[in-house]
Amino acid sequence: MRIEKLDQNTKTDLLESLLKRSPNSYGEYEERVRVILNDVKARRDAALFEYTKKFDGADISAENILVTEEEIEEAYREVDPGLVEIIRKALVNIRSYHEKQMQYSWFDSKPDGTILGQKVTPLQRVGVYVPGGKAAYPSSVLMNILPAKVAGVDEIIMMTPPGKDGRVTPTTLVAAKEAGADRIFKAGGAQAIGALAYGTESIPKVDKIVGPGNIYVALAKKAVYGHVSIDSVAGPSEILVLADETANPRYVAADLLSQAEHDELASAILVTTSMELAEKVSDWTDQFIKELSRGEIIQKSLDNYGHILVADTLDDAVDAANEIASEHMEIVTANPFEVMTKIRNAGAIFLGEYSSEPLGDYFAGPNHVLPTNGTAKFFSPLSVDDFIKKSSIISYSKGALEKIHTDIERFAEAEHLTAHANSVRVRFDGKD
């Protein structure tokens, strides 16, 4: 990995390089996505089935697009029982963590007859997109479905692309069943996002779409925002390790590569105060790449978006980490909890040398759907909050309104909204 001295120029160049990975930088795909979405909106099932045949090679129709209980039972027979048990253990941790995020309606009443409050309501129907293809991500199934389930969403619809044989990856089906998906449909890509956003004869329209996908899925979610809500427009995976001379270079190198293996656009960054650590980490990454199955992808990722930045002070390192606002941040320093208090921008923060990032991906419980491309400056991880909405409650008695009605009228008149003022005035003008 390249080793650079951290200064304003290297930081600026790095930030500009990382932003190029954003889905917002792939405008040439937007027209293709728009055509697909418009076609699905106009021709509904017919378009959905045609695109599934074109892109996935599967013959899907109204008769077989819905995954049956028999298909789910077959998936359980194909998945290693040991893996099923691990999925169930992870599910308990994820559910327990998200149950602590629950919000409840509240009301505040006063003796004068004023009642103010907030009504919390789960979304009625949510669509969860799960990527297909050669890779299967049962962990993403759990992370997207469980917070919706905990929030109390009435119906959770899952969409995932089938293989050419029309079947869905068995581990994906098992994870969906365990997490509580209500219906699973065989469709992927931008066409699946369009089906969820607009509805078709087979696919019900949802209120919100969540879940990761390729550039077409990301841009489709961006395009349908407003027709439905979405979680975010996610970019490639990224990790930043903030370390000092006390860190184990072998551990740090392994953790950096855990994200670099996702794809060639993934970003892996070490910010450290130790040149010795920087050099050892670089050596270890070279050694690990030779041993790992996705070494070629890892190497391309590091060549494009891998960096080791050596800072003069820990405060400089923290400042750089906050500017980068990484999806995953590991703090491996002499006092990681103290350093953590200075971190303003990160999707998930892992503290200490035994809190490796994959712990969060699979098992600990916090959600692994995280803000990318610097959006941790203003976005949060997927949570129960993403599957609820809030309504304000206002109730005034006659006596409570009478005390303040002239204030409201004057305020409205100051804005030249006389109908607003009149709406209050008629209740006290004695003309009833």
Automatic annotation (TrEMBL):
SUPFAM superfamilies reported for this sequence: ALDH-like
Family matches, as CDD domains: Histidinol_dh
Top-level taxon of origin: Bacteria
Binding-site positions, NAD(+): 129, 191, 214
EC category: oxidoreductase
MF (Gene Ontology): histidinol dehydrogenase activity
Alphabetized Pfam families for the sequence: Histidinol_dh
Protein EC: 1.1.1.23
Catalyzed chemical reaction(s): L-histidinol + 2 NAD(+) + H2O = L-histidine + 2 NADH + 3 H(+)
Full protein name: Histidinol dehydrogenase
Upper classification of the organism: Bacteria, Bacillati, Bacillota, Clostridia, Eubacteriales
Cofactor note as given: Binds 1 zinc ion per subunit.
Family to which the UniProt record says this protein belongs: Belongs to the histidinol dehydrogenase family.
Chain positions recorded as substrate binding sites: 237, 259, 262, 328, 361, 415, 420
Alphabetical keyword list: Amino-acid biosynthesis, Histidine biosynthesis, Metal-binding, NAD, Oxidoreductase, Zinc
Active-site residues, Swiss-Prot/TrEMBL: 327 (proton acceptor), 328 (proton acceptor)
Known role: Catalyzes the sequential NAD-dependent oxidations of L-histidinol to L-histidinaldehyde and then to L-histidine.
Pathway: Amino-acid biosynthesis; L-histidine biosynthesis; L-histidine from 5-phospho-alpha-D-ribose 1-diphosphate: step 9/9
Record: residues binding Zn(2+): 259, 262, 361, 420
Cofactor entry: Zn(2+)
